[in-house]
Amino acid sequence: MAIKEIKVANEVQNKQLGRRELVLEVTNDGSTPSRAEIIDAVADRFNMKKADIMVIRVKQDYGEKRSSVLVHEYADGSAGKLAQAHIVARHEKKQKGDAAAEAKEPAKGAGAKEAAPKPAEKAEEKKEAGKGE
Known about the structure:
- With 133 residues, the protein is of the alpha+beta class.
- The chain has one domain: 2-Layer Sandwich (Alpha-Beta Plaits).
- 41% of the residues lie in helices and 29% in strands.
- The protein contains four helices and four strands; from the N terminus they run ββαββααα.
- A four-stranded antiparallel β-sheet has the order 1-2-4-3.
- The chain is elongated, with a radius of gyration of 22 Å.
- About 5% of the residues have low confidence.
């Protein structure tokens, strides 16, 4: 999944909460981009720290390759303190999931274990065992 283009549709500076609120039009290939992909692309495009970015909403109409994304950029790493609890929970869940996926990848690469036999192979083994009797 690749994000092709990011355009700023609206930008609001919310000084009371110490954040910048961006409504973005994201053009992508295929399915709706994940929050992690959006954070990476926004951080690269706008030169922001990933820890300061919270993806609030991602909306993609059926069949379109364009998403409307609401992103908040918090100042001084206050994202976890000022953002709504359910948004912070989503963000942390994604970070834990990404870390767990990265931890599993080296274990798969070790190759010490043989691949489990496929169900079709198991069925063939049972048939052969039954013929010998």
